[in-house]
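Weekly structure sync, notes
Attendees: PL (lead), two postdocs, one rotation student
Agenda item 3: pending single-chain targets
PL asked that the sequence for the first pending target be pasted directly into the notes so everyone works from the same version. It is reproduced below exactly as submitted, 461 residues in total.
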Amino acid sequence: MKNKGSILIVDDEKGQRDILNLILKKDGYDVVDVPGVREALAQLEKREFDLIMTDLQMQGQSGLDLLDKVLADDPQQCIIMMTAHGSVDSAVEAMRKGAFDYLEKPLERDNLILTLQRAFERIGLVRENRVLQKRVQSIATIPNMQGEHPKIKEVFRIIAKIAPSNSTVLIVGESGTGKELISRAIHEGSPRRDKPFIAINCAAIPDTLIESELFGHEKGSFTGADAREIGIFEAADGGTVFLDEIGEMNVAMQAKLLRAIQEKEIRRVGGKVNIGLDVRVVSATNKDLEQEIKKGTFREDLYYRLNVIRVNLPPLRERGSDIKTLAEFFLEKYSKAAGITLDGISKQALKLLMNYTWPGNVRQLESVIERSILMAESNYIEPEDLPSEITACASLAGGINFDLPAEGIDFEELEKGLIIKAMERAEWVIGKAAPLLGMSYKTLQYRLDKFEIERPDKRAR
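Predicted structure, written out during the meeting:
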């Protein structure tokens, strides 16, 4: 019979312990019984028990004494009190202190078994919560993924929940939000962590080579194929393949990828044998794939196969409270690497960083801090150490004059940042945002299309 869990019985009545032993062992529980609190504490020094059942009134120390000592060491230990009818008030007091439940003597078998079932359901939830907390803590320490904003903490929670599964995952987010970091966190949190993790950027590989890159090729299968080569799916067998920019893959290749995921097998280019593989696929995109489906550039069946679990990464502007945390993290990282000692970021410079819209997201912030460390003239990063697009954007947004930096500015990034800021202030109503920028409705609509600026929740849908 499968072991349902371990129980420590504490009761100074031997007959009561014998009855419980008989019932619980027959029902599949691992049982140890002791006559008092001192013996119970000695057992708890030797091993852990899922559940403790203790009599309330015993010679010497009471069940309440045991409750206090056990919960002081482990507040989540599950304890059930056993009490005679006249001591119910004391049992209720025990529950107020943290006991799971109480049972009145003489114990009824059906009520006992039902109470234990409920107790072990709770124990299972507590264990699951502990595992999730550990995973979330490990994920929250991933480089470049610092943050306490509710949106990013929700991402951490989802990753911790889904990592142990084998389901495909689609990560959706703007460029620079950390999609590959999230995919690595999913791999590291899974049973596949000791197997390969291989990432590939679909946009960086020509259409003529991507099939060979993914699935490999046989010798002589095309010009230049001088030897057999395995693809990343074979190389990652047992592990995880990360397909970045999946929205850039051509439709013909999408059909072959769909078959590989569904059938769990691939065929090398020029090969005649199907090769069975065990690979988890995590993909990512900064495109709205549902819109790409409507345009006919992305297969709907592949979308649903990839989108079993979806992770939406928020842009940095939507979790502005994390900018300070990330900036300080990058400051420590790159100042140490450069051998430069800085005391921090000045309040004025931090204010500029907090007010910027960060079209390049976390990746852009990382680059800005790395540059600013090298440019700093004092022990702090000051406004003059920041790139011109950040200081210029702040000056324009504040309605004050500023001097054009000698090195010039990236005007398109400046314009894009101002448009996003105006749209956010106008709650993404073009008619309200246009006057803020001194533009007509049509001009602003044109620039929104040009820079591919969309309302964040529209992209998520």
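Discussion points:
- Residues 6-130 form a domain with the Rossmann fold fold (CATH 3.40.50.2300).
- The first strand starts at residue 6 and ends at 10.
Action: rotation student to compare against the earlier draft before next sync.
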